[in-house]
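S.,

As promised, the S-adenosyl-L-homocysteine run. Input:
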Amino acid sequence: MSEAKGILYVVGIGPGAQDHATPAALKAIAESQLVVGYSTYIKLVRHLLEGKEIIKTGMTEEIGRARAAIERARDGATVSLISSGDAGVYGMAGLVFQVLKEMGWKRGDSPELRLVPGMTALNSCASLVGAPLVHDSCSISLSDLLTPWSVIERRIEAAASADFVIGLYNPASGRRTRQIVDTQAIIRRHREGNTPVALVKSAYRDMEQVILTDLDTFLDYEIGMLTTVIIGSSNTFMFEGYMVTPRGYTNKYSFDGAVLPGQRPGFSLVVPPASEVD
Ligand code: SAH
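Predicted complex:
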């Protein structure tokens, strides 16, 4: 091992196009001698990689990829390990810490860790359909490759019954098609069939596709590995082709800015008996 302390950047590159990667993410990649990532993400930033060493591996070789990045940085190199979106959201950051823990790494040891945030798929997909995340939302991955389906099912049920807007990551793949069907059935027990649903595929990439539909019919459309599904809450509405979840301003104020009778700005909403609130 060399004496020099290396740097490991764990970088979220955003959804795809460089305009949606942060300057800090691009700078980290520019500074790195080695860039490690799943081939699809390497392709998205290939124009930044001239003269750099690249390790790209398939989806199922994640542990090896994290280990290679860490070992090279530990030995003194500046390395970027890249994930799409944010590396800390269903990305490589968690695995990096697990490998470091297993290696007995301590703060102050080589490599120095630098976590660089990126725009998540849920954020970027939301921007393509309107403002669906303005009130409470959650994200659930439907991939049961590493998590038991019974756990995922329980989370869907909880999110649906608590009226969260739900962002579904990894909704389906060639082999995994049952999960999204079961998910629709669970959510439908708690929400109306006309609840707005957005299907966003390849946001800010070449094959971008946006479909606005509803809870009863969204399964009629193609849903795959590159799709994020956004299911509205009971308050989400469609307006001029946009999907909008209101924040509840109209519970307290009229549109001319006046405070409604019985309400006080800066204080908890007074809930009229049996009223419908956003
Ligand atoms: N770290 C990523 C998530 C990786 S999990 C992030 O923060 O966004 C992979 C899942 O993310 C895909 O199955 C899909 O549901 C979603 N996803 C990633 N990029 C996307 C894009 N450009 N458009 C739509 N969905 C995307």
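The two ends are 59 Å apart (CA to CA). The longest strand covers residues 7-12.

- D.
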